[in-house]
Design a protein that fits this description.
The chain is α+β, with helices and mostly antiparallel strands. The protein is 51% helix and 15% strand. A 5-stranded antiparallel β-sheet has the order 1-2-3-4-5.
Length: 220
């Protein structure tokens, strides 16, 4: 379910790029509006993909650079990291927490970059934007439509920071929270093997090179 949901993330951002009214070249991202932010970040990220397509074709691992520079500034990976550690957060030192946050950020970069290599021909439907004036967290609803298959329901969770700006921190795909899924996995590993082992595991996953599956027309 986790991998399927990550593919859905890639589909979502790709479709935003294809259905957006305009690219956001040289445009500031409005981080004070969570709905506008999500769309603008997606457009800007995929504009970069198209711009650097030659580099990506030569080295798919370059996708990590794009994700790190264009997408991650709008992801609250520190907050997500702390949530993933769960009750073990209180048992860690300041140095261990920083190491875990850095490793988890790298893991997210690698995971998103790999997910962006997979999407086909779908359509997207947005739920209505709501008044968020007094909200500390909002949920951005979307549906991914593909002929012959049930719609994929996605829900992006975005939180308001102290400076009144917003960052995304979780994705719920078909009712399953990716953050909760990783928390269950990571807390179990920390309990069994310790925080240092989990940090090393995340670093190893981050180091895996991005692989691109050949298109159907390229297969023998």
């Amino acid at each position: 379910m986790y991998q399927a949901a990550m593919k859905a993330v890639a589909v979502f951002f790709a479709l935003l790029m294809m259905t957006g009214s305009a690219m956001v070249k040289a445009q500031e991202i409005n981080t004070e509006n969570p709905y506008a932010m999500l769309e603008a970040v997606a457009n800007k990220t995929f504009e970069r993909f198209y711009q650097d397509k030659a580099k990506i074709d030569e080295d798919p691992n370059y996708l990590k650079v794009i994700v790190e520079e264009e997408l991650m500034p709008y992801i609250d990976y520190k907050y997500a990291s702390y949530k993933v550690m769960g009750r073990h957060l209180r048992e860690t030192t300041k140095e261990q927490r920083k190491a875990f946050v850095d490793a988890f950020e790298g893991y997210l970069v690698s995971t998103y970059a790999q997910a962006f290599t997979e999407y086909t021909d779908q359509k997207i439907e947005f739920g209505p934007a709501r008044d968020f004036t007094h909200d500390k967290m909002v949920e951005v609803h979307v549906r991914i439509i593909e002929a012959g298959r049930p719609p994929i329901k996605l829900l992006f969770k975005v939180r308001r920071l102290k400076n009144n700006h917003w960052k995304a921190f979780d994705l719920v795909a078909e009712g399953v929270s990716l953050l909760a899924s990783k928390q269950s996995e990571v807390t179990s590993l920390i309990r069994k093997e310790g925080i240092e082992s989990v940090i090393e595991m995340l670093k190893q996953k981050t180091a895996v090179k991005i692989s691109v599956k050949p298109a159907e027309s390229e297969k023998l």
